Amino acid sequence: MRKKTVHFSVDDTIWLFNDLNSNNYKSAFEQPVLNFFQGLHQRYGLMVSFYCFMRQDWFELSNVTDAYRQEFSDNSSWCRFGFHAYDEQRRYAEVECKLAAADYAGVIEQLDRIVGGALDYWPRIHCYSANREALTAWQKQGLCGVLCPERAEIKVYDLDCKQRQQVNTKGVYLDKSTGLGFLATDIRIEETNCMAEALLAKQHRPHLEIFTHEWALDRDNVKEKIEICCSMLERIGYQGGFYESGR
Question: Which residues fall within 8 angstroms of residue 10, CB to CB, at 6 or more apart?
Fold first, then answer.
């Protein structure tokens, strides 16, 4: 019998890299955000991905130290990093394909320098905004699939109504012509009031995707919700796992 798996992810990631630069940590996992998730991995087997911006006005990935590259690679079985967008303003349904391709290549190049083999190729794209040309360009650079919204009414990439419905009812839609996957997100932590009810409603799924944003982790109740979520997932039979095609 195939095990049920759950994967956590953190969007809008960039601040933790700035913190790594500003402090002389002996280990990357002394950094507070990374330390929090490492603790959950040790207690519950949590697996997590951080989807990253290239830059904010005050900082960019090209400034990040590569001193922890080997350590990140050594922890790639449970902690990975992937593309989110160039910055908060970029919408990939609106930009030219060449720019979208360059943005993706640039972020992956920097992440490879910073985290080595700890790369994730199933990211959640900023605002779920990307046209088919952008997705195709990213697929040529290694993209396997993208994460979709937690609510069916949110417009997602360039999927039509029937395709969006399949994502939300079956948990995944695989484009037969390209092999690109569109994977459902199940829960957004900071917008979920009753975690038990939300998880029980989804427990038939063989794989769950649960996420938050890096800026939300400053709120104590968000971290508490994540811990409650991990504990309950363990009780209802889920184990940490990255998505595997064919589930």
Answer: 33, 48, 49, 50, 51, 211, 212, 213, 214, 217
List of the chain residues with pLDDT < 50 = 246-247
- Whether residue 111 contacts residue 82, with contact meaning beta carbons closer than 8 Å, is answered with yes
Phi-psi label, residue 116: left if phi above 0, alpha if psi -120 to 50, beta otherwise = left
Distance separating alpha carbons of residues 51 and 37, to the nearest angstrom: 15
pLDDT in tens, 116-160: 999 999 999 999 999 999 999 999 999 999 999 987 667 789 888
- CA atoms 216, 221, 223, 229: torsion sign: negative
42 burial type by CB count under 10 A (0-12 exposed, 13-18 middle, 19+ buried): exposed
**What's the 3-state SS for 30-84?**
HCHHHHHHHHHHHHHCCCEEEEEECEECCEEHHHCCCCCHHHHHHCCCCEEEEEE
Tell me if the pTM is above 0.70.
yes
